[in-house]
């Protein structure tokens, strides 16, 4: 098996497929192409890819539906969405459904490559952390491979973003993380949400995992900077 990152490109615009595939292959990525949503979903469901570049408007099955169904079925492969649409609602919905980043056509190829690198780097870090299998703090147990969180033996339901945020906090245990840093790493460096979104998600995690969310022991505020996780 090759050590080169593998990318699934789900796009029906032939000219764009050729341009993206050729450029990615120049960067020594392995690229597979699916030119309609049904084939794209089938391929993506194998979980055999390091990144999915997913167009929003596709024949057979739309990109938003693909993203939603993959996440519901436990496929965590990073998704970089492409769309010709400019409406804010499409971006918001894509991110809410579990997309990791979002680019609007037309775009510069250098920017696409940069975003691809960011997502692959994040995936590598997550895999390195998930190799430990489980992590615990207080009466909270985390299973990274199964995306399972329990508190005092009872399963805790977290959204995809809440889990990603918690995982990033754990990965950087003891380090001070700014709101912008959390926003960039969890939502994507050009994501729509504001730093207020980070505060809201931190509050939700505290409510679900801390003994007293008003006086947290693990997910701490560092006034004037951001947050810190102490296990």
- CATH homologous superfamily classification of the largest domain: Response regulator
Describe the strand arrangement of the main beta sheet, using strand numbers. 2-1-3-4-5
Number of H- or I-type helical stretches: 8
What's the overall geometry?
A: elongated
Identify low-pLDDT runs: none
Question: What is the strand content?
Answer: 15-25%
Terminal CA distance reads 37 Å
Tell me the CATH topology of the largest domain: Rossmann fold
Helix/strand order: EHEHEHEHEHEEEEHEHHEE
**Mean pLDDT value:** 87
Q: Which CATH-level-2 architecture of the largest domain?
A: 3-Layer(aba) Sandwich
Helix percent reads 40-55%
Radius of gyration over alpha carbons?
18 Å
How many individual β-strands?
A: 12
Keywords:
231 residues, alpha/beta, Rossmann fold, Arc Repressor Mutant, subunit A, 2 domains, five-stranded parallel beta sheet, 42% helix
Question: How would you portray this structure in words?
Answer:
The protein is α/β, with parallel strands linked by helices and 231 residues long. It has 2 domains: 6-128, Response regulator (Rossmann fold); 132-229, Arc Repressor Mutant, subunit A. The chain is built from 8 helices and 12 strands. It has helices at residues 14-26, 37-44, 63-72, 88-96, 109-130, 160-171, 179-187, 195-209; strands at 6-10, 30-34, 51-55, 79-83, 101-104, 134-137, 140-143, 148-151, 154-155, 176-178, 219-222, 226-229. The strands form 3 sheets. A 5-stranded parallel sheet has the order 2-1-3-4-5, with helices on both faces. The chain starts with 5 loop residues before the first strand and ends with a strand.
């Amino acid at each position: 098996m090759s050590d080169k990152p593998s990318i699934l490109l789900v796009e029906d615009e032939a000219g764009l497929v050729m341009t993206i595939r050729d450029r990615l292959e120049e960067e020594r990525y392995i690229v597979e192409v699916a030119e309609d949503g049904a084939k794209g979903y089938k391929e993506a469901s194998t979980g055999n890819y390091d990144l999915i570049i997913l167009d929003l408007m596709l024949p057979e099955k739309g990109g938003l539906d693909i993203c939603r169904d993959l996440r519901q079925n436990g496929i965590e492969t990073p998704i970089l969405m492409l769309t010709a649409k400019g409406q804010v609602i499409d971006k918001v919905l894509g991110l809410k459904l579990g997309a990791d980043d979002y680019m609007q056509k037309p775009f510069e190829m250098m920017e696409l490559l940069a975003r691809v690198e960011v997502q692959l780097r994040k995936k590598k870090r997550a895999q390195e952390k998930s190799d430990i299998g489980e992590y615990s703090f207080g009466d909270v147990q985390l299973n990274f491979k199964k995306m399972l969180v329990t508190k005092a033996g009872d399963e805790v339901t977290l959204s995809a973003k809440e889990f990603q945020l918690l995982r990033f906090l754990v990965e950087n245990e003891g380090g001070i993380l700014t709101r912008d840093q959390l926003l960039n790493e969890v939502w994507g460096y050009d994501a729509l949400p504001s730093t207020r979104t980070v505060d809201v998600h931190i509050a939700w995690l505290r409510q679900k995992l801390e003994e007293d969310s008003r006086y947290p022991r693990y997910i701490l505020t560092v006034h004037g900077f951001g947050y810190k996780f102490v296990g």
